[in-house]
Amino acid sequence: MHIPDGYLSPSTCVTLYAGAAVGWYASLKRLKRVLLSRMVPLISVFAAFAFVVMMFNLPLPGGTTGHALGVTIAAIVLGPSGAVLAVSIALAIQALFFGDGGISTLGANCCNMAIVGSLVAYGTYRLIAAGTAISSKRRVAAAAIAGYLALNATALIAAIEFGIQPALFHTANGTPLYAPYPLGIAIPAMMIGHLTFAGLAEAVISAGLVAHLQVADPGLLRATSGIAARGDAASPSEQPATKSLRRLWLTVVFLMLLTPLGILAAGTAWGEWAPSEFARGGSVPQPTGPSHGLAVTAGMQRLSTLWTAPFPSYAPGFVKSPAFGYLLSAMFGVGFLLAASLLLQHYFKRRRSTGHSS
Amino acid sequence: MSRGTVVRSTVMGFARALARALISEDIARRRGLLQSLDPRVRLVGLFSLVLAVTLSRRLWVVGVLFVVALAVAVLSNVSLAILAKRVWLVVFVFTSAIAFPAIFLTPGTPVATFAGGAVHITEQGLTTSGLLIARVETAVTFTTLLILCTAWAQVLKALRSFRLPQEAIAMLAMTHRYIFLLTETATQVFESRESRTVGVLPAAEQRRITAATAGVLLSKSIDLSNDVYLAMQSRGFRGEIRTLSEFHMQSWDYVGLLAFLLAGGAAVWMGR
Positive or negative, the Cα torsion across B260, B261, B262, B264? Predict the structure, then answer.
């Protein structure tokens, strides 16, 4: 899981360092606004804990052993921002002090384990454990599933990083310059071990730790439980929900305003060609020889007229300006999703109130 | 691995990690080429050589960089036996296991054929496997030289001068300190458990013990973080981190930096 130096190309490393830097910056900024003086020792000790837990050998079915990452319990106790920093620090010390994982690939390792791992673990745990009491058995199961999924998501991302290397970086005679296996080999090779053994180690440790905390220190589980709003404990690392929601809305509005940028792109997105474009050739890749167009199958022709969209190509017929058409489409899409979400919310609220009264 | 040895192997793993850290501290105090340079020069210089290794597309260039790594190790008083045991053997076994199938699986010009033409070794497969093993061996050797010849406190100080956020440096420093404390605690917990255990426990029971030990360690970690927080507050910590002395570059450090950058640049140029 810890990618050493030499397996990934420098451009992949730089890209993933940039991705990790965004995660570190966002996490640090988020924590700074909350209570940094309290979080510094907590994250440091948690990073040390994650480091030591990575050295625990755990007997697994089949007579083998595995070790956990500690990312799931960090996400459950500290929240995603705290977990990103704690696991990144543990990984940095492993790379810089113990030589486990490369220096050039530290960004990749942090992206995979600290960022993707924390987010998947946190999201899964919150989703499964939503609305349950702190002492609920469902939280233990949620931690196990979150751990299993987080570790496998991490492995999958690492496998994709390995798998794209031969396609992107090779010599003129086809010799791969970095990790040599394509996606078709890298993904199964990486996932078999993680789906069967390594994921279990993270699941067992995460479930065991949540069960332990339920008895020994339930307050630590309250921060990310989703029931902190009752006033007995505030999340140590998360923002109040209203602020986050406001920021989310501002982002949505900003993205909506950016939608006309799509007009600048030349040609059609790969694989989204209309039957007419097949017949014309154009941006559609041709199998051999010069562009002369491809035959459109009867099935393709028939299915293409099955449904006529009200806003075809993000350009409603009654709008003349393409930019305004994009904007209108974005507003319509967001509005439609919002209406659907409000309807669902209303339905579940009514169901809950009916359930309580009966 | 035998089921009965899981607790023991975990304890041995802790002991190995502590021993490694002690060796690093010892080598970092010796007199030598790398030790005589400013830690920032070591960090930038060795990182640029790792980058040069990663950028090189020719096997012979990576080979030359490996010889450079050997020379730097000898001049820095780092035992080649330590490097062989700690880096070369481990990396060779691990990377070979990954690289070996590529000899057969990489499409290209066949150089040897087996099983009536069904399996063949390709030229491209041999080159990519050799390049991968050589590159990883050389890059990890440079990284290990940095780790062995630079005390952790100096690495942190060097990182600080590269304008990394003070909070991140403070957390790295605190984490490093608590790793040893928690490793010590975990070792004691495992050893006391082992001393009270007769015979071989079933795997399920060992899993329970490991999870319970992790739980105890987590509780102790949280208590520790509370104590540290109170100690920080009682000393007037209000979220601002201040640091002491800065490094001062000497002419010898500039020579070292130039040599590293020239070597790295030449390797990138010749290996492109």
Answer: positive
Greater model confidence, A308 or A173: A173
Two structure tokens written together for A98: 């113990």
Distance (Å) from the alpha carbon of A38 to chain B's nearest alpha carbon:
6
Secondary structure class of A236 (helix, strand, coil): coil
Question: Who among A4, A56, A98 is closest to B20 (CB)?
Answer: A98
What is the token pair recorded at A255?
């993205």
Separation of alpha carbons B239 and B167, rounded Å = 9
> Which positions in chain B touch A217 (Cβ < 8 Å)?
219, 222
Q: Which class for A80: exposed (0-12), middle (13-18), buried (19 or more C-beta within 10 A)?
A: buried
Distance between CA atoms of residues A137 and A210, nearest Å: 10
Fold of A10-239: Arp2/3 complex 21 kDa subunit ARPC3 (1.10.1760)
Mark yes or no for CB contact A175/B143 under 8 Å: no
The pTM assigned to this predicted structure is 0.69
Contacts of B224 in chain A (CB under 8 A): 45
* ipTM for this model: 0.75
Chain A interface mutation, best of B86, B167, B184, B219, highest count of A Cβ atoms under 10 Å: B167
Q: DSSP states of A135-173 as a string? A: T-HHHHHHHHHHHHHHHHHHHHHHHHHHHHHHHHSB-TT
CA-CA distances (angstroms) from residue A35 to A32, A237, A238, B220? Answer: 6, 8, 10, 22
- Residue A267 pLDDT > 60, yes or no? no
Nearest CA in chain A to B9: A57
Joined tokens for residue B234 = 């009682």
Q: Which residues face B114 on adjacent strands?
A: B119
| Inter-chain touch B203–A59, beta carbons under 8 Å | yes
Cβ–Cβ < 8 Å for B2, A65:
no
Ranges in chain A annotated CATH 1.10.1760.20 = 10-239
How would you classify the pairing of strands A65-66 and B110-114?
Answer: unpaired
Read off the pLDDT of residues A98-156 as tens digits, 9 standing for 90 and up: 777 788 889 999 999 999 999 999 999 999 988 888 888 999 999 999 999 999 999 99
pLDDT confidence tier of residue A334, bands split at 50, 70 and 90: low
B126 exposed, middle or buried (CB, 10 Å; 0-12, 13-18, 19+)?
A: middle
Determine whether the interchain pair B105/A56 forms a contact, defined as Cβ–Cβ distance below 8 Å. no
* Nearest chain B Cα distance for residue A159, angstroms: 13
